[in-house]
């Protein structure tokens, strides 16, 4: 399987603390050694750092842990391969452009017996994972439903994606993150949780390595920051656990739709 | 304007030497301080590092200069903005997926009076540069001509792109790099040159900083590596200078088509 991490914030915020915890699970405190990636949005622009080796020993991951990139939306993934070889092309997150936005996606889980299901022509897999195939299918279905221009209410698109995720879940475990750079959606089959931090901020302690942060010193009183993860990253805070079929849509750090 | 850099090789090769020269031009020996980016292919997979600040002082560029990523195709760009603000979304290279391949593009030059020319629906600009607009138009025209599956001869696609580039050149300066990860195309309006290095390898000396490399020690006798740049990067080798309207298609380090 794999682990997911994402962030939605109302001010550009760095994710060094959370990524430091996640990266440990890529070979040190967890078995996810088959690649890692992280996508940062700055406005509509995005950039993705990825590597097909373990995050715990990656030089690029070291940079991400030491060099604070401030972003309003982040999606990250560490991989333990099941379908598809271990290489760069199969490393999440995956990105496609639609409606003049970069859509970024990461998946945790495994799908089976899906022959003939995830069909897409306009968006095609470059690698050979079940994850990317499902992503291309979702993007194709969005275009089939909404056409070549974005609807007025982007939340309608994500509500539709939730119904597609319900379909995908019929074929196995489908925990998913999807963003267009403004909205961030999480969909749960079995392992996904989130925490929304806002004033008054306190201290947080990572589970996977001996790091404590005092958010009160790193933030302003108006900051609202949600972090989503496969499993809680801190052990002194209360995380919201999602159930099978639950989804949440975040914008500027806050839940704006969901089941 | 901007500067371009690219590589095509028959074995995974690092571009540390050439990028070290280029990065100097991003603020130290050249005025291209408005962002930089570099895309590396590993098989069909690709990853892009980019930053909206000057390459000469970027921490991420420092990593690229010190951490050899081996690749068969590389596209890089340093930006001096004319159209479009200085930010991540307007930073080259740009990437889109078509036919299950990642297509990566960078442009040097400026286009004017093109209203109504570069129209595209399937591929849309995320930023607001003339460069990305022309890229989306090229990708749209490729789909209009060849449909949803790649033709048998990919060189046919690039020959068609050369005719599109001829059209784009009517609107200003259009020096361009385009790759699908296997083929690498360069198109010249006024500034583009290349060098193909093969055995017997010799020493090369960068123009922009005091670095000398002995390729004989870095290569094997079968290696063939072409580097493309806006202006020569070394001063003790002979670079091939392209003329207005010239294009070359490279694969595995060698010219395979062109004008």
TrEMBL record, chains A, B:
Kindly indicate whether the keyword Manganese belongs to this entry: no
What EC number(s) does the entry state?
A: 2.4.2.-
Q: Name one GO molecular function term.
A: glycosyltransferase activity
Q: What are the residue boundaries of the Glutamine amidotransferase type-2 domain, all occurrences included?
A: 2-259
Q: Which InterPro entries match?
A: EgtC-like, GATase_2_dom, Ntn_hydrolases_N
Q: Does the keyword Glycosyltransferase apply?
A: yes
Ordered alphabetically, the record's keywords are: Glutamine amidotransferase, Glycosyltransferase, Transferase
Pfam family name, one = GATase_4
The enzyme's main class, written as a single word, is transferase
Top-rank taxon: Bacteria
Cited Gene3D superfamilies: Glutamine Phosphoribosylpyrophosphate, subunit 1, domain 1
Output the PANTHER family linked to this UniProt entry: GLUTAMINE AMIDOTRANSFERASE, GLUTAMINE AMIDOTRANSFERASE YAFJ-RELATED
This protein is called Class II glutamine amidotransferase
